[in-house]
Structures are given as structure tokens and as C-alpha cells.
Amino acid sequence: MIRLQVLLFLFVFIQTFETQAFVLSKHYKSKERQTLERVLSLLSHENFPSFEDHFSLGDWLSQRAIYFVAPFEPLAMSRSNQLINYPNLENIIPMDVEGNQGILIFMKNEGAFIYHAGKARSVLYTVRFETASRSINIPVISPRAGIIRTGQVFFDRPIKDELSLRGFQISQLVHEARHSDG
Prior knowledge:
Layout: H1 2-19, E1 23-24, H2 30-41, H3 57-62, E2 67-69, E3 76-79, E4 82-85, E5 107-109, H4 110-121, E6 125-130, E7 135-140, E8 147-150, H5 162-178
Parallel strand pairs: 1-2, 2-8
Antiparallel strand pairs: 3-4, 3-6, 5-8, 6-7
């Protein structure tokens, strides 16, 4: 069973990188999608210097943050072909500016969280991810599953200066991507 899920993961992983580096959920609003795509496009080879092995910051990030989940979007998860309800963070702390109990959440690495929760329970979880054109089952077999949730605050312009805002958004992406390293 686990071998089949590993093969499925590798197929999805390879297929993702053949088509595009970052995959966005179909649940993003148009303006949110444009903002996130703009931030992700800033990480290309042209905008950041490459490392010695010719990897750009975008290349590095695309190995750790692949699937982007919209704010308040529920995640459908399964284990052993049994659908379960995942307690989204939004059910505990709203991911918006008002009424957030003093906590602002810009992003969360859902993949790392789900992996460690499964490891603690000796369970392998699979997440169903919906894009605009298809549905993908993502076996969460390591913290590098690359499932990142953006909070609403990420799009609400908490910083007014455009350059500072983009720098802050990129730093949030890199911070969450580092959680994928375990």
C-alpha cells in the first residue's frame, strides 16, 4: 500500500514540475491569485541571482512549496481510503485581521503539519487538492509535501510600501518553505 502511494506521489511530483513549478488551488479569488502569482514570479532566475549550482531562489522554493491553498479552504484528507475531517487552523483562529485574538497568520506549511501529525499516529495521509483543471491526490510522505496555506492577511496589504510588502511576502514564503526541510 505504501509503495503504491510513494509511486503515486512521484508521478504527481514529476507531473507538477513538467507543467509548472507552483500549483494554485481553484479556490483563490481572482485578485488573490494575481497577487500570489506576482510574488511567485519575482522568484524567477531573472530577478534573483543563482546559487553556484545554478538554482535560483524560485527553484529552491519550488522543491519545498508546491501546492498553494486559499484562505479558509477546507482540505479533504484520507487515510486508508477513509475520508476524514481535517481541523483547519481557521476553525481555531480566524486568519483575518479583525477578531483574530491578536494573532496574525500570513502563511502556514500544512504539508509539514499533516506529515508530523500522521507520523505521531503512524498514519499516512493523502490530501485531495483541487486546481482549476483537475483534482490531485497528494500522499503526504514527508514534510516536503509542499502544501502551503496562505492566510487572508497575506493579501490584505499590511505594509503599504510596495517594495517592502513584496520583500515581506517573499520572506514569508521562504520561512514556510524551510518547515518542509523537517
